[in-house]
Design brief:
The structure holds two protein chains of two kinds. Chain A is α+β, with helices and mostly antiparallel strands. Helix content of chain A is about 55%, strand content about 15%. Chain A folds into three domains: about 110 residues, Butyryl-Coa Dehydrogenase, subunit A, domain 1, CATH 1.10.540.10; about 100 residues, Butyryl-CoA Dehydrogenase, subunit A, domain 2; about 160 residues, Butyryl-CoA Dehydrogenase, subunit A, domain 3 (Up-down Bundle), CATH 1.20.140. In chain A, a hairpin with a 3-residue loop joins β2 and β3. Chain B is an alpha+beta fold. In chain B, the strands form two sheets. Chain B has a four-stranded mixed sheet. A four-stranded antiparallel sheet of chain B has the order 2-3-7-6, with no helix packed on it. The chains are: A alpha+beta, B alpha+beta. The complex binds flavin-adenine dinucleotide.
């Protein structure tokens, strides 16, 4: 048992930290979030070509780096810490995972190298998909309308989850962003650092070859994809929760009231200590889940714990991030409520990541069902 | 990162599990799952006999170096031992203070003579220890101890006078380690000594304190010219604080994983009760049970991180510093959950005059968890000051 980063994993973490602290500083985040696309195209190109982050856990057979999920989590943690704006979560944590889990050999060989080359992608209909599919002579037809699609308005292509009629079997399909009959509309969001869209499918035609055919049980495959994504999201939440603590500490040290640094007041110290408890526990939960996710993708026996580990991590990290961001605002006083200070951006990101892929209550209920029913 | 245990470690797991299955039978069957926190006053004689049985099997002090009678077990093996012990319902250890506090302290700071004299008795499960730190005026502010130690040149003995309080299991113990002031006019953490005292002597009086549970695990201990030999001070006079703090470092060791198995047993009981009485259908209760489950899982992962050693710069272990505050708060919440799962039945005792059932005991006893071993407030001060480098508390 060696439950800590290896030297190589630490190096990957440090590289991400060094890069993002400059490339994703406050100014960069504010510029990106003000745009409809949501990110700086030149920066994304650099992330793909120089840092090769989208290729991180894609196996070498498909042109990827073949690294593990712990490395992915370490990178996501830093992205969360610096509020990185880019289609990384959608492309890598949703679409790549969907292909890895549910794609056939030839589908993986078709689509994964395109991600390595810089394509962006997402997953549509992740939770309780409102979309339906039906078979046609040459393939399938998709109908319905789906909101809350992460980066859905700008991605090159997408994996779509739909049900055969109401309550029928899940089908997973790959679809280009400019498919006929597909309308994509950006939805302005409270957390502007992560973009969402509404996608309307008006009898969108799909060739039979584009239905993902690598998993026997598509329902289970989709559930696993969402669990993998939740683990990555939890890592992002850890980074955000840590940054809330760090920036708050920096602030309270400088701020003087009653003739002394407000960091010397016990009420402030105790709040900070509570924030540290939340984030360290979050880190333990998230790293454990990342190890399990790695096992799952490698087909190891501990991979069976994926659903549980993902729910533990997502539930805790969602609450922890929101707690730390909320305490952060409180300890900043009035400036915490301004547009100018970054703590508000973390607060909003904490809320949007809490909702994404099921909030803490949803994940607790999932565990409760396993324990009690 | 690697979560799995090695094949040798798994073999070790089988060995201890088999031994426990063979030995927790007969006279010891009745004390399975007994004597844990909140139940420490129960079956003292049987549990003392069990300590000796453990020792015969070579299962006491397994983490000590072989030179001192231990097995030199790796961290992983100690983790496994504690997990299997708790899983099998191994009774609350009477010898844990000697094994986890006195022993490591003597190994780290003691003289050869002290090690030869005291380690074998602990190792054999025959000599039990208690911890004489707190006093009426020295609780959170431990450095404020007033108990005095004077060296008597004629008899070549130390004479200890003063009062300790909240001394757990003093009434069952053979020895006590005591911090006392060796320099009469000193204050704070200077001028202290760390002494090893036999409990069975005229200068020591033990008076049980009745707890809110109606039972008495802890005591007041009065020292009136109690004596120990010139060689029974650990370190030099004046080193007491260093030794005392070193000892507290051992407190957060591997036994935490065994403690977590006890917590798991408690949570399992709450889950069983919720299913039985229908509380499991209440959405709020479901959330809280799941939350307790999550909290316990993370407690384990957090300990795994601690035991794997840190991390970034090798010095500070943030996940180790949060441990006490984290588990005590979790456990206290578990006590509240237990009562809410029981509903009105929570009030009804197992018997008269005041026989608490296990969950009532959990509810009441977990109120102590956030007090002893550094209160939650003191833990927050420590985290803020040592992990987050915030300004220190003003001192009186
Ligand atoms: C069940 C049990 C078993 C015990 N066993 C032992 C034992 O075997 N040996 C032993 O030596 N001791 C033992 N203790 C004693 C225990 O360590 C002390 O109770 C503890 O350190 C607190 O000290 P106190 O009771 O004097 O409370 P106080 O220190 O008086 O604290 C009272 C309140 O003030 C708060 N407070 C105090 N200082 C600060 C501060 N600086 N900042 C903020 N808040 C503060 C505390 O958090 C607490 O809420 C035991 C206690 C219990 C409950």
């Amino acid at each position: 048992m060696e439950f800590r980063f290896t030297d190589e994993q630490r190096m990957i973490r440090d590289t991400a930290e060094a890069f993002l602290s400059v490339a994703s500083d406050g100014e960069a985040v504010r510029a990106a979030m003000a745009s409809e696309l949501g990110y700086d195209v030149a920066l994304w190109k650099q992330v793909c070509e120089e840092l090769c982050w989208p290729a991180l856990h894609i196996p070498e057979d498909y042109g990827g780096l073949g690294l593990g999920y712990v490395e992915l989590a370490a990178t996501m943690e830093q992205m969360g810490r610096f509020l990185f704006c880019g289609p990384y979560f959608s492309t890598v944590c949703l679409a790549v995972n969907a292909l890895l889990v549910a794609g056939s050999e030839s589908q993986k060989a078709t689509w994964l190298p395109r991600i390595v080359a810089g394509d962006t992608a997402t997953l549509v209909g992740a939770l309780d998909t409102p979309l339906t599919w039906e078979a046609t002579e040459s393939g399938y037809r998709l109908s319905g309308s789906c909101r809350y699609v992460i980066d859905g308005h700008g991605v090159d292509w997408m994996v779509v989850a739909a049900r055969q009629a109401q309550g029928g079997d899940i089908g997973l399909f790959v679809l280009p962003g400019d498919a006929d009959g597909l309308t994509r509309q950006w939805l302005p969001t409270m957390d502007q650092t992560r973009k969402q869209a509404q996608l309307d499918f008006d009898s969108v035609q799909i060739a039979s070859a584009d239905r993902l055919a690598g998993a026997a049980d598509a329902d289970a495959a989709l559930a696993a994809v969402l669990d993998l994504a939740a683990v990555a999201l939890a890592a992002e939440q850890v980074g955000g929760a840590q940054q809330c603590l760090d920036s708050t500490l920096a602030y309270v040290r400088e701020r003087v009231q009653f003739g002394r640094s407000i960091a010397s007041f016990q009420a402030v110290k105790h709040k900070a200590a509570d924030m540290m408890v939340k984030v360290e526990a979050a880190r333990s939960a998230c790293y454990y889940a990342a190890c399990i996710a790695q096992e799952f993708l490698a087909g190891g026996p501990m991979g069976e714990e994926l659903a549980e580990a993902a729910s533990v991590a997502k539930a805790w990290c969602s609450d922890a991030y929101l707690f730390n961001a909320g305490c952060g605002i409180q300890l900043h006083g009035g400036v915490g409520f301004t547009w100018e200070y970054d703590i508000q951006l973390y607060f909003k990101r904490a809320k949007s990541s809490e909702i994404l892929l099921g909030n803490a209550a949803v994940h607790r209920e999932r565990l409760a069902a396993q324990l009690l029913d | 990162m690697e979560l799995r245990f090695s094949i040798e470690d798994e073999r070790f797991r089988e060995e201890i599990a088999d031994w426990l299955a063979d030995n927790l039978t007969g006279e010891f069957a009745a004390i399975r799952f007994r004597g844990g926190p909140g139940d420490e006053h129960m079956f003292p004689e049987e549990r003392k006999a069990w300590e000796r049985r453990l020792a015969e099997g070579g299962w006491t002090c397994i983490g000590w170096p072989e030179a001192y009678g231990g097995r030199g077990a790796s961290i992983e093996q100690q983790v496994i031992f504690h997990e299997e012990y708790a899983r099998a319902g191994g009774p609350g250890r009477m010898g844990h203070i000697g094994e986890t506090l006195t022993g490591p302290t003597l190994i780290a700071f003691g003289s050869d003579e002290q090690r030869e004299r005291f380690l074998p008795g602990i190792r054999a499960g025959e000599e039990l220890w208690c911890q004489g730190y707190s006093e009426p005026s020295a609780g959170s502010d431990l450095a404020n101890v007033k108990t005095r130690a004077e060296f008597d040149e004629t008899s070549q003995q130390w004479r200890i006078t003063g009062q300790k309080v909240w001394t757990s299991l003093a009434h069952e113990s053979d020895y006590c380690f005591v911090i006392a002031r060796t320099e009469p006019d000193s204050a704070g953490h200077r001028g202290l000594g760390f002494f090893l005292l036999a409990m069975d002597q005229p200068g020591i009086t033990v008076r049980p304190i009745e707890q809110m549970t109606g039972t008495s695990e802890f005591n007041e201990v009065f020292f009136d010219e109690a004596v120990c030999g010139a060689g029974d001070i650990v370190g030099a006079p004046g080193d007491g604080w260093k030794v005392a703090m070193g000892l507290l470092g051992f407190e957060r060791g591997v036994s935490t994983l065994g403690q977590q198995m006890l917590f798991q047993n408690e949570l399992d009981e709450i889950v069983r009760e919720a299913k039985r009485n229908g509380a499991a259908r209440d959405p709020m209760i479901r959330q809280r049970i799941a939350d307790a489950h999550i909290g316990l899982k993370i407690m384990r992962y957090n300990s795994m991180r601690t035991l794997s050693g840190n991390a970034d710069d090798g010095s500070l272990q943030p996940e180790a510093m949060i441990y006490k505050l984290y588990w005590s708060t979790w456990h206290r919440n578990l006590g509240k959950l237990a009562m809410d799962v029981l509903g009105p039945e929570a009030e009804i005792c197992a018997g008269a005059p005041y026989e608490l059932n296990r969950l009532q005991s959990l509810f009441l006893f977990s109120r102590a968890d956030t007090i002893y071993g550094g209160t939650n407030q003191v833990q927050r001060n420590i985290i803020a000051e040592r992990a987050l480098n915030m300004p220190r508390e003003p001192r009186g």
